[in-house]
TrEMBL record:
It comes from Legionella hackeliae. The keyword Nuclease applies. GO terms for molecular function: exonuclease activity; RNA endonuclease activity. Transmembrane segments: none annotated. This is Exonuclease of the beta-lactamase fold involved in RNA processing-like protein. SUPFAM superfamilies: Metallo-hydrolase/oxidoreductase. Keywords: Exonuclease, Hydrolase, Nuclease. InterPro entries: MBL, RibonucZ/Hydroxyglut_hydro, Xnuc_lig_assoc. The keyword Hydrolase applies.
Length: 334
């Protein structure tokens, strides 16, 4: 059996599989790329060839256009294919619709690249699937013991309680892919069936989710509201739009943001958020540790996040561990 470092290496473009001759989530344009999910920091437009789940392919084509890549190829969960001498398998990652862990097998050595993932229930995507491997490459966005995310129901009840208490418009900043649809669907599950109003930038991805069977209930364009009619309504928008002139149409409003980073009070205060909602599409510290235990690899590589703390914990618990320090991955709404 060859060791992982003999056939999987870090390059300026990102993680590269030598025998397979492809990159995983490359941060600059390459000839052949496997994409874990549709967030723009992982899914660049312009690669010559892209392999991803059908959902991620659809997301990328919606965002970038079908002509943004010369060759599209999709692979469904739990199916595999052989690329040169490397077996490639996709497992659900539980991050957003279509998000996948990339399982690579070569010369009796199995590597799993987690991509971004979470372990909480999400009604808009398939749950994370744990599989044993030799090397596990994990994200660590919230890789500090202080990060323990509350149940989403707790945060949504905060929103609904505020809505009952203050009869003003509630503007909620959500990332357009994943967070938006999860928040809507989760509100429906706890029986909020009123129309939810959307910034125009959120509409197309919600429609795409619907085509994949994720029913979101009645959605309306936010620009149909005015100061009077916006009272008591939930309006979703990208976080960057919370302080735009666009919000003036709603009159007095309460500004909320759904993000794991809202656990940090200073960040919420800095962004002038009235109602922080700690809702994350990434694993928190207990879930990172849980996943490490369930996957039970010989070696752990930690990337994009709080790498050092998780490397230290893994080493203390008997794993070989190192930080990859992959560059180019930014916050995706978290």
């Amino acid at each position: 059996m060859v060791t992982t470092t003999k056939w999987l290496t870090l390059t300026p473009q990102g993680l590269y599989c030598i025998p397979g001759q492809f990159y995983i989530d490359p941060t600059s344009l390459v000839s052949s790329a496997i994409i874990t999910h549709g967030h723009s920091d992982h899914a660049l437009a312009g690669h010559h060839k892209i392999l991803a789940t059908p959902e991620t392919v659809a997301i990328m084509q919606l965002r970038y256009g079908i002509d943004s890549t010369t060759h599209w190829q999709s692979l469904s969960y739990f199916q595999s294919l052989l690329i040169n001498q490397v077996k490639v398998l996709f497992l659900p990652a539980g991050h957003v619709l279509g998000s996948a862990q990339i399982v690579l097998e070569y010369d009796h050595n199995r590597v799993i690249i987690s991509g971004d993932y979470k372990r909480r229930f999400d009604p808009t995507c398939m749950p994370f699937e744990a599989l044993n491997c030799d090397t596990f490459i994990t994200e660590a966005t919230f890789g500090l013991p202080v990060f323990k995310h509350p149940p989403i129901e707790h945060e949504l009840n905060k929103l609904l309680h505020s809505l009952e208490t203050f009869s003003t418009c509630h503007l909620v900043g959500v990332y357009p892919l994943g967070k938006c649809q999860r928040l809507i669907k989760s509100l429906r599950i706890i029986n909020y069936q009123e129309p939810i109003y959307l910034h125009g930038a959120l509409i197309k991805l919600c429609q795409l989710y619907e085509t994949f069977g994720v029913k979101l209930g009645e959605l309306r364009l936010a620009n149909t509201l005015d100061t009077k009619s916006a009272a008591g309504k939930i309006v979703l928008c990208p976080p960057s739009s919370l302080n735009d002139r666009w919000t003036r149409r709603f009159g007095e409003s309460i500004k909320a943001q759904a993000s794991g980073w809202m656990q940090i009070r200073a960040r919420a205060k800095q962004k002038a958020i009235d109602l922080p909602l700690i809702i994350s599409d990434h694993a928190d510290w207990p879930e990172l540790v849980q996943t490490m235990t369930e996957v039970n690899p010989y070696e752990i590589w930690v990337t994009h996040g709080q790498e050092e703390a998780l490397v230290y914990y893994a080493t203390k618990n008997g794993y070989q561990a190192q930080a990859l320090h992959l560059m180019g991955y930014e916050e995706d709404g978290n």
